[in-house]
């Protein structure tokens, strides 16, 4: 449906058929928050929501871009003119990918691209990575570049870091490129080694809800940079390359060494315990003890709220209300200061929990949240 619409849109815009149509999903992160820029572990899974792109090659060094979701016409750029920090619009994401491919020496000579996305933008569900990865995969196929999913993810991250200018880690792009249906992706962000962990909640009578608070507090980007810098400072104080290198068993000794550096203590404690939580969730899922991940999610939220200090009243209200209404676990997900929370619940409790959260938001005078079920879905793929 979405694929046909995007194909038709391409024909209408450019007057020719595209050479193919591709999709790349958004993601939610089950556990492992802010660990990806500390060389640590993450565990995202792909959403059914995707960015879909119809694409055709060009040979004249021109890139034409259009999004069905943005007002305005086709944007035309020359590959020779693509330069980091030159574009503050949505087009920076796809053109950044083309720039990264060219910069890496891949023989890309232009493209016509029309896309549309069902990934909510700015909700912490990685609409930006979906956009990047769908373009990277399409060009990889059309230009027969032979790049693997993790290599596309690296190029997309480079596009977002250098071209767009957002200092994001590697999780979002890898999740979009590499996730598999019915699985969560256990990813070591240091070397990008990965393991697909079966995660079929429906078969066990459970559901995972995403609650998009629909808020994004304006200081979120600055705070992200501060947390990153704080983690780097913590690693330097402890004499390690990255906080990933502090073993959980040595956490107390490490905190002792940080003494009364209260900020470093909090940040280090979150990252080291969060890596441990990811490993715990993997072990529980692999042993079939799925319900037991609930308390680990709850502990993860407390750590993000109290130690990393990136929650906000809306996210805390989702978590507190869901838990008070019988959820097995709940936590904020994504960068923080708004965006989305996830709730793990028995299937029979979903309606009660959803209603309770909606009522709590109304009572607090918050914008109504958007609640939907997240089914672990396929990663980036060619549709036609
Ligand atoms: P997130 O990745 O959490 O959704 P970001 O701020 O990283 O949030 O990325 C959101 C940005 O991605 C939007 O502001 C817009 O520039 C771009 N974007 C997302 N979806 C689309 C779309 N369908 N069409 C055009 N641009 C989009
Ligand atoms: Mg993003």
UniProtKB/TrEMBL annotation:
It comes from the Bacteria. The keyword Ubl conjugation does not apply. Residues 283-362 form the GHMP kinase C-terminal domain. It is found in: Cytoplasm. Substrate binds at residues 33-36, 224. The record marks 27 as: Transition state stabilizer. Its EC number is 2.7.1.6. Gene3D superfamilies: 3.30.230.10, GHMP kinase, C-terminal domain (3.30.70.890). Signal peptide: none annotated. The keyword Transferase applies. Pathway: Carbohydrate metabolism; galactose metabolism. Mg(2+) binds at residues 128, 160. ATP binds at residues 67, 122-128. Residues 93-178 form the GHMP kinase N-terminal domain. Keywords: ATP-binding, Carbohydrate metabolism, Cytoplasm, Galactose metabolism, Kinase, Magnesium, Metal-binding, Nucleotide-binding, Transferase. Pfam families: GalKase_gal_bdg, GHMP_kinases_C, GHMP_kinases_N. Residues 10-57 form the Galactokinase N-terminal domain. The active site is at 172 (proton acceptor). It catalyses: alpha-D-galactose + ATP = alpha-D-galactose 1-phosphate + ADP + H(+). Catalyzes the transfer of the gamma-phosphate of ATP to D-galactose to form alpha-D-galactose-1-phosphate (Gal-1-P). Belongs to the GHMP kinase family. GalK subfamily. This is Galactokinase. It comes from Streptomyces coacervatus. The gene is galK.
